[in-house]
Each structure stands twice: as structure tokens, then as C-alpha cells.
Amino acid sequence: MTKQRATNEGPEAQSDPFEVWREFYEANEAVWSKAAKETTSTEAFAEMQGRMLETFLSFQKSARDAMNAQLGTLNLPSRDDVARLGEIIVGLEEKIDRIEDRLRTLAPKPPTRTKATRSRRS
What we know:
The structure is a single chain. The chain is mostly helical. It has a domain at 77-106. It is 82% helix and 0% strand. It has helices at 2-8, 11-15, 19-40, 43-73, 79-106, 115-121. It is elongated and about 90 Å long. 0% of the residues are buried.
């Protein structure tokens, strides 16, 4: 059987050992792509996806509410609490920057020293 294969195969098959694999992949990819397109383009699929999304969002809300209740029981901050605190900190930083800018404009500038005044002190 090995001799038959060796004699039946041309030089192209021997030079590229992955050619059979490529052909197999391309044939299967085309079939699966067509099946996926046919399945996902139906109204039933869209309705099922919508129900799954609603179910997931409902579960996510329940989990978030339960976690917030647990964190509240343990007297720990929730994600919303930390986010609110971050907003407050950013607001304070902006106010401090504005105050610093005002102080810079109001503060008298120190007199500049010339070479002559520096040499007299030495």
C-alpha cells in the first residue's frame, strides 16, 4: 500500500505535506460558515438571543443587588460608592488647581537680582 501511494502521488503532494489538511480545512470551513449564516439569520434565532440577553441582564441585576446588600451588611463600600468617591476626589483636585492658579496671579513676583546686586553682597 505504501508503494501505491508513493507511485500515485505526484511531486506536488510530496513537496507540501499540509495540502491535504488545507483542503480539508477549506471544505469544512465553507460548510460550517454556510450553516452558521443560515442559523443566525433566522427570526427564531434573534428571538432566542433576545430572551437570553434579557435573562442574563436579569441575573446580572440580581447578582449586583445581592452583592451590594452583602457589602452593606459588612459595612464595605460598593463599586458605586468607590466611583462616587473618585468623582469627589477629581472635583477637589480641580478646585485645588484653580486656587493655585489664583494664588499665582495674586502673589507678588520676587524681585529679580542683577549681576550688580549679587556682586555687592559677595
